[in-house]
Amino acid sequence: MIVGRRTSEQRYAKDILANPMTSFFTRHYWSVAASGLAAPAIVGLIIGGADEALLCFLWAGCARVSVLHQLTWSVNSFGHMFGSKAAGATDEARDNRILAILMIGEGLHSYHHLHPNAAVNRPISLDIGGLVILALEKINVVKNVTRYER
Fold it and tell me: How many whole angstroms separate alpha carbon 62 and alpha carbon 117?
């Protein structure tokens, strides 16, 4: 980083950086990532032996991570090419309903560009993740949810 300049994390996520749980996962990223690949293999080994361990490692470990990465990257590519623009949008980001369903709301990319700090993209338009956040807020599991009213 350039000394004296604020990073996006420092600007937009001060509270997240100060959170002890977030700090823990940041410090132990590789251990957590490796356990996400190893855990399915261990379960497979217990349930069905070495062959099942390999299948679980490949499908519930590697394939799961690969599909999630491809979908995430699709939001950043297809989310700028296919779909509709949110009212007031001035860039090429698009809301793509297929990606919104597959990525529990993250495919609503045009709205995200208009309101990058909002935790809820568009609760009335396939933002399942946003609806979960709002439900968690109602039962006081999360608080101070940033939202943009129309």
Answer: 31
At 132 the three-state DSSP class reads helix
Domain boundaries, the chain: 8-70, 81-150
Tokens of 41: 């293999």
Residue in this structure with the two tokens 């529990």, named with its chain if needed: 104
| Global pTM value | 0.71
| pLDDT single digits (tens) 114-129 | 888 888 877 667 888 8
CB contact at 8 A, 86 and 114: yes
The radius of gyration of the chain's CA atoms, rounded to the nearest angstrom, is 19
The answer to whether the beta carbons of residues 110 and 98 sit under 8 Å apart is: no
The overall longest dimension of the chain from CA atoms, in Å, is 57
pLDDT tens-digit profile of 81-140? 998 888 888 888 898 889 989 998 888 888 888 888 888 877 667 888 888 999 999 999
List C-alpha distances in Å: 88 to 6, 61, 118, 148: 28, 41, 16, 14
Burial (Cβ within 10 Å: 0-12, 13-18, ≥19) of residue 111: buried
